[in-house]
Write a structure and sequence with these properties.
70 residues, mainly alpha, two-stranded antiparallel sheet, 5 helices, 9% strand
């Protein structure tokens, strides 16, 4: 499962979902779904988020092992 810290980092930058969406070229709904971990962004969108939030890819997104997959 892919986890992320987009919401936390967006809040630290004092951006609304709408403002972040405008900066990366998507809708507010897309940002909401990413933050709820219901949508995994493309690599390109992930990198845009990293640029705007001034974080590396591994600071924003990481894999969390599912205990049921062992």
């Amino acid at each position: 499962m892919i986890k992320n810290s987009v919401k936390q980092n967006r809040n630290e930058k004092q951006l609304t979902q709408e403002e972040l969406a405008e900066k990366v070229g998507v809708t507010r709904q897309t940002i909401g779904l990413i933050e709820k971990e219901k949508y995994n962004p493309t690599i390109a969108l992930g990198l845009k988020l990293c640029q705007v939030l001034n974080k590396s890819l591994d600071q924003l997104f990481w894999l969390e092992e599912d205990v049921n997959e062992k």
